[in-house]
Design brief:
Helices cover 46% and strands 6% of the residues. With 72 residues, the chain is mainly alpha-helical. The radius of gyration is 15 Å and the shape is extended. The model has no long low-confidence stretch (mean pLDDT 74). One of its GO terms (cellular component) is chaperonin-containing T-complex.
Length: 72
């Protein structure tokens, strides 16, 4: 797919989630879904990358209900 920046991946993931209710009749749709899934996975990996390793930092995650979790 070529080199895509983190901001582009996050933007594409958000745009894909907004289009989730569209039909799957388009022949390019499976490729778009695959690209969207890969972009989303890369965005999540970028977000948690600093929590891995011996000098990893904890992440504070807040869900939609306002509950906060700090995974180890």
């Amino acid at each position: 797919c070529g080199e895509v920046t983190r901001e582009e991946r996050v933007g594409l993931a958000r745009a894909a989630s907004c289009r989730a209710k569209s039909t799957y009749e388009d022949h390019d749709k499976p490729a778009q879904i695959c690209f969207s899934n890969m972009s989303t996975a890369k965005a999540v990996a970028d977000a948690i990358r600093t929590s891995l390793g011996p000098k990893g930092m904890d992440k504070m995650i807040q869900d939609g209900k306002g509950d906060v979790a700090i995974p180890k």
